[in-house]
Specification:
heterotrimer; A alpha/beta (about 220); B mainly alpha (about 240); C mainly alpha (about 230); A: about 220 residues; alpha/beta; Rossmann fold; 2 domains; 5-stranded parallel beta sheet; 6 helices; globular; C: about 230 residues; mainly alpha; about 85% helix
Chain lengths: ~220, ~240, ~230
């Protein structure tokens, strides 16, 4: 099968999803090109997180279709997963492991890397998010902001092209906000793209190409 | 995937009610044949007549669970949600037949062995099977998302069906180490015709029930899909 | 290459689960304590006649182990669900069976260790004399644990994510385990009694067949279950 190619990092048409009888998304159509950083706004329960989870292949849409760099999210989830960096609201870390162990686990799960390169990458990622000093501490003792930083470090190990971030700025201090914006800008400038769910515009205002607002389950 | 599963029309009843009427008549004929034509048993008297329901129900139950296995596998292969509904319909009817087999087996067992439950190999493995499919039906109740429910119950249905043979073998061994297996294979040749007729009657009845239950499950899902489509168009 | 990667993932998951368990010992201690408690309760139900207790030892041991193990299976997925770690786990590349194998290995070590302690306590409580064929008995313990853990790990992946998980797991699991439990109990009982009738052999073969069939079936089915 020929490798699907697409100018669009995200190309979604009529994406709909319901939970029980409640329609959270009623047909969202959106395109994000390489090099764009798009902010996704909307009130509580407007379906921002649901849309992000659908694009990240973690939820199936009830209707509509979407592709990431030309790969269909339902038919070719592995291709999609290899290209995205998904940051959920919950950090998804193992609390009884240290920061370094969490990253080592992620590196192994991500695939073939020599032990040496993995260690270098892990240290670089920890330094990038400013957690070198806490590398050997267990995550259980981390503040919410530290856990988010560690989740970002894990995301970096996957070398993502498209960032799907769910309220990445929450719980971060000023320095953390700068770090997060830096990480997003760096990946987007390298030819990637980002879709960022925000509940307030302020921290990300400087880096967004444009914003979208979800209302009544539509974009 | 979920987008393609919405593109089906619920099956129509067609001539199935006619088939149902025929089945009922056939069943009545079979039962009359069994009740009037076969002589009373030397030991059990007219209680023997229970076998014209008990044995066909047990046979047809096995066929039903094979259908669950078939549609579960086909669902995982083709991902057509109608296969999941067919498996569910078969599981419901199979569990019903299974319960009937158990109840009649106990009634049959009381005068035969003097107790309601003698840990007979067939009856005991039927009970295990009953519980496995109660688990299957409970799982369907406890999971709301239709796609998740379909995938999970397909896996549970297949594993359950695989286990049927192993359960039966293990229970039989467990019994035979202590006593000879009691078996209804001592059935006299005069009973055979009535037994066969009733076996077919139950087979048709099962097919009829599964089909009608399948239709109703499809209607419910189709109504969901219609509501879905309406919600997406409107507002 | 791909297989080597998956095998590394299997080990990583097993290591992660076991490290988590080791660092929060409360879970393991609790499960072992529960196993011992159930053994004691069986003693009350069956005793105080020594011979009756001895005869029922094999069955009581396996049931105590089963009830304690069920707790371990749901815990195994709780680690993933608690902090939303299942999402990243599903987004990693590689085969889905690797996740299952890793969790199964961790559960086997956990349940195996629990079984050792419960069996040792059971030998004392139920006044069991250790037979000459004790290596075969250890083999039965291993095979029985594999059977229980394979289906336990598999069904917990669904039950832990459903409503009413406490009810659903045993409801799905126990009837499915009937052949494995029957075989393990009967083989243990025969071996403890000196295996005069040479029954153990047939039961061990049944146990092996059960383990092989369900190891294959669960590994094949897991991807459909975890993705949903």
């Amino acid at each position: 099968m020929a490798e699907p190619t697409s100018d669009f990092a995200i190309d979604a048409t009529g994406v709909a999803r319901r939970f029980g009888t409640r329609w959270v998304l009623r047909g969202v159509t959106l395109q994000v090109r390489s090099g764009e950083t798009v902010g996704l706004l909307g009130s509580n329960g407007s379906g921002k997180s649901t849309l992000l989870r659908i694009l990240a292949t973690l939820l199936r849409p009830n209707a509509g279709s979407a592709s990431i760099y030309g790969h269909d999210i339902v038919r070719a989830p592995d291709e999609v997963r290899a290209r995205i960096g998904f940051l959920a609201h919950e950090p998804g870390l193992y609390e009884d492991l240290t920061a370094e162990e969490n990253l080592r686990f992620a590196a192994t799960m991500l695939g073939s890397q020599g032990a040496g390169t993995a260690a270098t990458e892990i240290n670089a990622a920890l330094a990038r998010v400013g957690l070198t000093h806490a590398a050997r501490e267990r995550v259980r003792g981390f503040s919410a902001g530290m856990a988010r930083r560690l989740a970002v470090a894990r995301l970096l190990l996957g070398r993502p092209q498209l960032l799907l971030l769910d309220e990445p700025y929450s719980n971060l201090d000023a320095e953390g906000i700068a770090m997060m914006s830096g990480v997003i800008t760096e990946i987007v400038q390298r030819g990637g793209a980002a879709l960022v769910v925000l509940h307030e515009l302020a921290p990300a205002a400087g880096i967004l190409s444009r914003t979208l607002t979800l209302r009544d389950g539509r974009a | 995937m979920s987008t393609q599963s919405t593109s089906w029309v619920p099956p129509r009843a067609g001539r199935w009610p006619l088939f149902g009427a025929f089945t009922i008549l056939f069943l009545i004929a079979g039962q009359v044949l069994g009740l009037t034509q076969s002589p009373a048993d030397r030991d059990m008297g007219d209680l023997e007549k229970i076998i014209y329901v008990h044995v066909p129900a047990a046979w047809v139950m096995s066929v039903t669970f094979a259908i669950v296995m078939f549609y579960s596998l086909r669902y995982l292969w083709k991902r057509d949600e109608r296969d999941d509904l067919a498996a569910a319909a078969a599981a419901e009817v199979g569990t019903l037949l299974n319960g009937l087999t158990l109840a009649l087996g106990m009634i049959f067992g009381k005068p035969t062995w003097g107790v309601w439950w003698a840990w007979d190999a067939r009856l005991t493995s039927t009970l295990v099977l009953f519980l496995i499919f109660i688990g299957y039906l409970s799982l369907r109740e406890f999971v709301d998302d239709p796609e998740r429910r379909a995938q999970w119950s397909a896996a549970v249905g297949i594993l359950g069906a695989i286990n049927v043979g192993i359960v039966y073998m293990s229970v039989r061994w467990w019994r035979t180490l202590h006593q000879m297996q009691s078996s209804p294979e001592t059935v006299d040749a005069t009973y055979v015709l009535a037994l066969r007729v009733n076996a077919f009657a139950f087979l048709f009845l099962m097919i009829y029930f599964v089909r009608r239950r399948y239709e109703s499950l499809c209607l419910v899902r189709a109504a969901d899909h219609a509501a879905e489509a309406a919600a997406l168009r409107g507002a | 290459m791909a297989f080597a990667d998956d095998w590394r993932r299997v080990r990583a998951i097993a290591w992660k689960d076991l490290t988590t368990e080791r660092r929060s010992k409360a879970g393991f201690n609790g499960v072992v304590a529960l196993g011992v408690t159930i053994l004691m309760l069986f003693g009350f139900a069956l005793g105080p006649d020594t011979q009756a207790i001895r005869d029922a030892a094999a069955g009581a041991l396996w049931l105590a182990a089963l009830f304690a193990a069920v707790l371990a299976f749901n815990r195994s997925y709780q680690v993933e669900l608690e902090s939303g770690a299942l999402d990243p786990l599903l987004l990693y590349p590689g085969s889905r069976w690797a996740i299952f194998s890793g969790k199964l290995l961790a559960n086997l070590s956990f349940v195996g260790l629990m079984l050792v302690i419960v069996v040792l306590v059971g030998i004392v409580l139920f006044q069991v004399t250790i037979p000459a064929a004790w290596p075969a008995l250890i083999g039965v313990l291993v095979l029985g644990a594999i059977g229980i853990c394979t289906l336990g790990t598999f069904y917990a992946s669904m039950a832990s994510r459903s409503r009413a998980r406490e009810v659903l797991l045993p409801l799905l699991l126990f009837p499915m385990l009937v052949p494995a439990l029957l075989a393990a109990m009967q083989a243990s009982k025969a071996l403890l009694g000196g295996d005069l009738m040479h029954e153990a052999d047939a039961w061990i073969k049944l146990l092996i067949a059960y383990d092989v069939i369900f190891l294959i079936a669960t590994h094949l089915a897991f991807e459909h279950v975890i993705e949903a």
